[in-house]
Amino acid sequence: MPGTQPRSASKSSPSAVKRAVDLMRRHRLLAYYVSVIAISWGGGLIVLGTDVFIGLKPMTKEQMIPTLVCVWLATTVAGLGSVALVGGKSGLLDLRARWTRWRVGWRWYAFALLTAPVLSTGILATLGLVTGSRAFQPLVVTATDKVGVLLPAIAVGLLNSFFEEMGWTGFAVPQFLKRHGVVTTGLIVGLLWGAWHFPMFAGDANVGAPIAPAAYLALLLFGWLPPYRILMVWAYERTQSALIAWLMHVAIDINVLAILPAANKDVTVVFTLLYGAGLWIIASGVTTVGRSNPRRRVSLAAAS
Fold it and tell me: SS3 sequence, the chain?
C-alpha cells in the first residue's frame, strides 16, 4: 500500500539513531577522539592544503588563525558533545562546576603558572652560561618589541588553552581516570595530544632541522608533552579543577610563543631534550609523593 513504506522507514530511523548513540556511549573515548580528529584534521586539510598538512611545506602565518579555529572548534564541540552524550544535563553541570572550582589554594596556582616558565628559563640560562652563547636567551629578552611578543602570546595562550582543555580535561582525562591512574592517564592523553598536533608541526620539521626530520618532529610532538600532561592530570586529579589544568596549558603556550627562541632549531633540539628530562623528573617526583601520601588529595581538594 502507498503508506506502508514511509511508516516502516519512520519506525526504523529512531532505532538506527539509538543504536548509533548507544555505540558512542559504550566507546565514548574512541568516539571523542574520532570526532576531534575528524573536525580538526578535516578542517586543517581544507585550510592548509595537502602539501602543508602532510609536512611537505611549512605553515604560513596567514594559515595559522584559521587552523587554530579548526582546532578550537574540534576540541570544544567534541568535548561538550561527549559530556552531554554521556552525562546529559548533570554531566554539563558537573563540567561547569569543575571549570569554576577556583578555591584550591595559592600553591596550585603557583604550580600551574610557574612550572613551565621557571624550568625553561633555568635551562636556557644554564645553557647560556655554559656555552657563552646568546642564542639561548629567551625570545622576549632578545626581541626589540617585547610587548609585541608578550601580548599575542598571552592572548593566544588564554584562548587556545581554554578551547583545547574543554575537550582534554573537560572530557577525556576524567574518563581515563575512571580506568587508570594518574601516570597512565597522563601518558595516554599526552601521547595522543602530541600526535594530534602533527599537521601543525610536520612542515616545520622538514625545513632546516639539524637532525633527521622524522626525529625532529618526534621530539617536538613527544619530547615533553607526555610528562607535562602527567603533571596536568596530577594537578587536576588533586584539585578536581579544570581551571588549574587550563592555567597550566596557558603557561606552556606562553612559554613556546614568548620564551623559547624557536627560530633557532639547534637550540630547540638541545632545549627540548633537557626540558623533557626536567619535566619527567618533576612528574616522577610529584606522582611518587602522591602515592605515598594519599590523604593529600583530600585535604587539598577540600579547599575547593
Answer: CCCHHHHHHHHHHHHHHHHHHHHHHHCHHHHHHHHHHHHHHHHHHHHHHHHHHCCCCCCCHHHHHHHHHHHHHHHHHHHHHHHHHHHHHHHHHHHHHHHCCCCCCHHHHHHHHHHHHHHHHHHHHHHHHHHCCHHHCCHHHHCCCHHHHHHHHHHHHHHHHHHHHHHHHHHHHHHHHCCCCHHHHHHHHHHHHHHHCHHHHHHHHCCCCCCCHHHHHHHHHHCCHHHHHHHHHHHHHHHCCHHHHHHHHHHHHHHHHHHCCCCCHHHHHHHHHHHHHHHHHHHHHHHHHHHHCCHHHHHHHHCC
Instruction: Convert the pLDDT of each residue in 265-288 to its tens digit.
Output: 899 999 999 999 999 999 999 999
Structural domain of 293? 94-302
Q: Are 149 and 205 in contact (CB under 8 A)?
A: no
Q: Tally the domains of the chain.
A: 1
Whether 78 maps to a domain, the answer reads: no
What would the pLDDT profile of 144-185 be if each residue is shown by its tens digit? 999 999 999 999 999 999 999 999 999 999 999 999 999 999
Amino acid, single-letter form, for residue 288: T
In a domain, 28, yes or no: no
How confident is the model at residue 28, as a pLDDT?
A: 95
Q: Scan for cell 636556557, then name that residue.
A: 124
Determine, yes or no, domain membership for 115: yes
Residues 6+ apart with CB under 8 A from 100: 243
- Residue 13: inside a domain, yes or no? no
Chain-centroid distance, C-alpha 171: 12
Q: Which residue has the cell 514511509?
A: 6
**CB within 8 Å of 148: residues ≥ 6 apart:** none
